[in-house]
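Hi all, long-time lurker, first post. I run a small reading group and we've been trying to get comfortable going from sequence to structure in the token notation. Rather than ask abstract questions, I figured I'd post a concrete chain and ask someone more experienced to write out its structure so we can walk through it together at our next meeting. Sequence below, copied exactly:
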Amino acid sequence: MTNINLLIEIVGEHAANALCQKYKTLTELTKADVAELQQVEGVGLAQARKIKAALELAQRLTREVLGESPILDTPDKVADFLRDEVRPYRTEQFKVLLLNARKRLIRVVDVAHGTLDTVLVHAREVFRHAISNNAAAIILVHNHPSSETSPSPQDITVTRDLIRAGQLLKIEVIDHVILGAKTENQPKDYASLRELGYFY
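-- Answer (accepted) --
Happy to help. Here is the structure in token form:
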């Protein structure tokens, strides 16, 4: 079944056609909140909630298939794990993956929420969660709503500050992964600051 056929099953043919005209991809549709969806012709509150519920179920299925405690020892695995969750965000969100000694996920912590291009992160928030969950290591993750994955000077500074703090606490900062989107000039939808040489 095509995307429009699936939407017809949820909201009916008229609303489904209107949605597909406004949102060319499922990624664009996922980013819309309930209020925005209701502005589409034929979509009321109940239908908007059904759409959001269906998309949330799809995201939960992805996480379930990946397993409750995946091993996250490479940036591509991190991107695969968080890609669907992060894709709808319109502002920068900073997450910390807490890992055990075998690089298996303990939990994901939302540390900070930012603006379109900035997010403030404090070491005390990052490591408070790591200590309370007995994490042996952490991976820093945040998104760039612009889709550009190149680290900003602030991203680099924050990373190095957290690496130093982790060394004092004996909690390894394994990587800092920035999630964006693939483009013609950007073949991957993520960047690893470790792979880029900012970990030293």
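A couple of things your group might point at:
The mean pLDDT is 89.
The chain has two domains: 3-64, 69-192.
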